[in-house]
Structure formats: C-alpha cells, structure tokens
Write a structure and sequence with these properties.
This protein has 131 residues and is an alpha/beta fold. The protein is built from four helices and seven strands; from the N terminus they run βββαβαβαββα.
C-alpha cells in the first residue's frame, strides 16, 4: 500500500493532494510524486521521468498502478509522478492527454515515449532502458 505523507492514499486508492509523495509502507524505497500544474516543473524539471496520467474512475489506470509502483522501486534514477486528470485538467492539456491511462516518458523535459492504454511492465522497462 502506498500513502502520502499526510496519510491519504492515491492512484486508485483515493487521491492525495498535489505535492504529496507516495511512499511504500514496506521495505522498498521509492516515491511517486502527486503532480499538479504548480509543482510539475519544480519536481520533474529536466530529469528523466515517468509520468502516469489517470483518474480515480479509470479501471485500466488502477490496473497499471502496481506496475508503475514496482518499476519505481527498481528505477530510482527516474522521477515518478502521477497526475489525476480530473483534478489537473490544465496539466493534462499541456501534454495533450486525451485517453487514459496515458504514461509519458520524459527526458530533458521533452516527451520521449508515450504509452496509451495499459502496457506490460516489460514495455515500460524497455523504453526506460533506451534512455
């Protein structure tokens, strides 16, 4: 289970506020940042990042959540983020997100790869490893 610093949960388990970080309550060290229009550039910047755009009501978004969380424990050199498109429509518009789930792989602030719909862990890892 992942929870934000204030005790709320996110990504299909109740959304925490922007700026929160989800931390695994087990042994694994990782975090997935809850992103908003106001904190996106300061958290992500030009670092390599995997950003998951989803919504509370999206069934497939909930299906990929554990995959993204698992990758975040393995790839600590990337920034991981989650954007709830219902709460952050301007950020979704900025990246032209029109379907859910959408996962973006960013490098130097630019989209390197866009994944539409649920993908396998291997698909995400192959793209990350090509960075």
């Amino acid at each position: 289970m992942f929870r934000d610093l204030s005790g709320g949960t996110a990504h299909g388990r109740g959304i925490a506020g922007p700026g929160s970080q989800l931390h695994n309550t087990g042994d694994m060290t990782m975090s997935i940042n809850i992103l908003s229009e106001t904190n996106f550039d300061s958290i992500v910047g030009t670092k390599p990042a995997l950003i998951d755009f989803g919504a509370e009501w999206c069934v497939y978004c909930k299906k990929i959540a554990p995959i993204i969380e698992e990758i975040a424990t393995e790839k600590t050199d990337l920034v991981f983020g989650y954007v709830d498109v219902d709460l952050q429509p301007m950020l979704a518009a900025r990246f032209r997100v029109h379907s859910l789930p959408t996962v973006l792989l960013l490098k130097d602030g630019q989209i390197v790869k866009q994944f539409l719909g649920a993908q396998s862990k291997e698909t995400y890892l192959n793209a990350i490893n090509e960075l």
